[in-house]
Design a protein that fits this description.
This protein has about 450 residues and is of the alpha+beta class. Helix content is about 30%, strand content about 20%. Among the domains are: about 60 residues, no CATH class; about 110 residues, no CATH class; about 80 residues, no CATH class. It has a 4-stranded antiparallel beta sheet with strand order 13-14-15-16, covered by helices on one side. Strands 1-2-3 form a 3-stranded antiparallel beta sheet. Strands 4-7-8 form a 3-stranded antiparallel beta sheet.
């Protein structure tokens, strides 16, 4: 099987797998040099199984067929015209291998002529491939079984290939086995390595790379792309995607929710008109924000919604939450407050949701710009506290994960903005807190709780 082999180890020098006195139970992984000089990885039990397969029960080595090198007939082979028999109105092939000899080469270099029947039993796949390659698969001695063997072989190969690819490939692209290999693959952009990103949501794929066409072509070679079309994104998960120009003249990507908001308003308007027989209010409100500033959901004493309106309440909450995901952060606090009442909302809470939908109707277009410029933050405005009592007097550094990826690309600045209405709930006196995580000049995470 090989000339040399070495036990593979992890980054700490520990062998991969477990040793065992029985070679068939040895799961250590070996780096193997093959006869042609190439290298591959095999587990110890696979190597042992390969060696055992070349010996009989008493340990004596026996020869197996290495290659099929020829064929001939001895005059007893049936002709094509006689290769069928008739059953009713159907012709069926005769299952015979008579009259054929196959020249084979064994692993020790010896050649011999063997009956077709014997080679078919020992090496059916190799013999079927040989017959197709030499265009004798239409002969009666081959026609009745070659196609069946090839189909069975293909089914087995596809099944194994799918299992193998699930562990070694992702979306048709081979996963690097080590960080060093990943760095070699991503050595781009004039010698500066960086990470390419492949973002997948169900059947939507977004590639972030200096050469996204090459990645999409590779994906298209393994998976069917709808209509065979791909290009710069115009929409993603309901959001409109486009480029905008910053004040410094640079271009960057942006995301807007106009199309989604318009569709959401029509859905809510249809629910209100169809089920309540009234129009959704879309005129200008007396208040500028999503809800009146003095409205307190916890003090609402209107009647509880029936099951039909409670279901509508939860549906609208879901619609508004996705609008927030698409960048409509201005309604985050209001939707978070009203989400607390999904189990048993009141009619006033439902009307408050209509106010938020009305706000989106009045301001349908908002754009979230992926601004990559680094903000200039004056650190002197922040109060620096003394945390020694909490963390200790010694210098304390956060421990990095041992398997963390190597930082690549340009450095980024992460900022966090937190605000709270202290004891804002007039019933429980609990606070409601909003958090923004900002990467460079782009808000990437926003939540309210």
């Amino acid at each position: 099987m090989s000339r040399q082999k070495w036990v593979r180890t992890d980054h700490l020098g520990n062998p991969l797998g477990k040793a065992h006195a029985n070679p068939l139970l040895d799961t250590r992984e070996y780096e193997v040099q093959l006869e042609d000089g190439t290298y591959d990885s095999y587990f110890g039990n696979i190597i042992a199984e390969n060696l055992y397969s070349q010996c009989d029960a008493e340990g004596r080595e026996f020869n197996t067929i290495r290659d099929i090198i020829g064929h001939k007939t001895d005059g007893h082979a049936i002709a094509k015209a006689d290769g069928y028999y008739t059953v009713g109105s159907h012709q069926r092939p005769k299952k015979t291998t008579a009259g054929w000899k196959i020249n084979v080469e064994f692993t020790d270099g010896v050649t011999a002529w063997l009956p077709l029947k014997d080679v078919k039993e020992s090496n059916p796949i190799e013999l079927a491939e040989y017959a197709i390659l030499n265009r004798i698969d239409d002969k009666p001695a081959f026609k009745w079984w070659v196609s069946l063997v090839i189909r069975k072989r293909n089914r087995m190969v596809n099944k194994v290939k799918k299992k193998y690819w699930r562990t070694t490939h992702k979306f048709g692209i081979r996963i690097p086995k080590t960080v060093a290999e990943a760095l070699r693959k991503n050595f781009r952009n004039g010698g500066a390595p960086y990470y390419e990103y492949l973002l997948v949501y169900v059947d939507d794929v977004l590639v972030v790379s200096h050469a996204p066409d090459a990645v999409m072509k590779q994906i298209g070679s393994e998976f069917e792309i709808k209509n065979g079309e791909y290009g710069p994104p115009t929409s993603y998960l309901g959001a409109g995607i486009s480029k905008v120009q910053l004040g410094n003249g640079e271009e960057c990507w942006s995301m807007d929710s106009k199309k989604y908001v318009k569709a959401a308003i029509e859905i809510v308007r249809g629910l209100v008109l169809a089920e309540d027989g009234r129009e959704l209010k879309t005129s200008k409100s007396k208040h500028e924000g999503p809800m009146p500033y003095n409205y307190a959901p916890e003090l609402d004493a209107t009647p509880h919604c029936d099951e039909e309106h409670a279901s509508r309440y939860r549906q609208i909450i879901g619609i508004l939450r996705w609008a927030i995901e698409l960048g409509r952060f201005v309604i985050l606090t209001e939707v978070s407050l009203l989400s607390q009442y999904q189990a048993d909302p009141r009619e006033g809470h439902l009307e408050a949701l209509y106010w938020i939908v009305n706000y989106l109707h009045r301001y349908p277009m908002r754009r979230l710009v992926m601004n990559h410029t680094i903000p200039d933050i004056d650190d002197s405005v922040f109060r620096h506290g003394d945390w020694k009592d909490f963390y200790g007097v010694c210098d304390v550094a956060e421990e990095d994960p041992t398997n963390m990826p190597v930082p690549l690309g340009n450095p980024v600045q992460m900022s966090c903005f937190v605000d709270s209405d202290h004891a804002g709930n007039k019933v429980t006196r609990r606070s409601h807190t909003g958090v923004f995580i900002i990467l460079n000049n782009t808000p990437v995470i926003a939540f309210s709780k």
